[in-house]
Each structure stands twice: as C-alpha cells, then as structure tokens.
Write a structure and sequence with these properties.
Blueprint (H helix, E strand, L loop, with lengths): L3 H4 L12 E5 L4 E10 L6 E7 L4 E6 L4 E8 L1 E3 L2 E3 L4 E4 L5 E5 L5 E7 L6 E2 L1
Antiparallel strand pairs: 1-2, 2-3, 3-10, 4-9, 4-11, 5-8, 5-10, 6-7, 6-9
Length: about 120
C-alpha cells in the first residue's frame, strides 16, 4: 500500500512564483524560469521557461529528453519554428539549438524526463 506522501497531489501557483533569472554568458542574455515541480528522486522537472526575443541557446546537448509546449510566441529550433499549441520533443543527447526568434519572445512549458544538465558544444 502506498504511503500518504505518494498519494498527495502536488500543485503550484505559477502566478505567485518569482521568475528565476538564468544568465547565459555565451550569448550575453538571460532567460527566465519558474519551476512548477521537480522530483527529488527522478530529477523530472516541469517549469515555465521564458526566452526574450533574440535569446537562442546555442548548440548543446542534455543527458535527458525534454519537451517544450509553446504557450506564447514562437519557439525557434535548429529544425524550424513552432507557434502556440506546438509541442516539440528533444530526445536525450540530441545536438540542438532552441530559443526565441529575433522578433518575438517565447513562453514554454518545459518538461524533462530526468535530471536536467546542459553541455555546450
């Protein structure tokens, strides 16, 4: 039988969470994140990620798969651009670029399948 902790619903009020600034010295800009949930055992993370116009995370890989559901704006990737309602999944280890277009900010729901790390190429 699962214990009570396993049976509890986890919720977040994104409106009351502060944006965490994430400076990226490689491009001289910051992105912003609100962590909605992070599982301490698996590392799975769900967050809101905001990229201001012109912010693109240059060529990199992650040791986790991650998905981005576009809420507002246009998500630019190495394979194309995606508007609101689009979901883009990046398999673990794929060499990728992603962020905002030069003209438009982008807000995404960002989901990882395990602990998040980034390695620039």
């Amino acid at each position: 039988m699962p214990n009570e902790r396993e049976l509890r619903v986890i919720s977040s009020d994104a409106n009351s969470l502060p944006w965490q600034e994430r400076p990226n010295p490689r491009i001289g800009m910051s992105s912003y994140m609100k962590v909605l949930h992070e599982d301490p055992e698996t590392g799975v993370r769900v967050s809101l990620n905001f990229y201001p116009k012109g912010f693109v995370t240059k060529w990199h890989t992650h040791p986790c798969g991650h998905g981005m559901y576009v809420l507002q704006g246009i998500l630019k990737t190495h394979e194309g651009v995606y508007g609101p309602g689009s979901f883009v999944w990046f398999p673990e280890g794929i060499l990728a670029e992603h962020g905002a277009t030069a003209e438009t900010d982008v807000l995404t729901l960002f989901i990882t399948n395990k602990r998040f790390e980034i390695e620039y190429k």
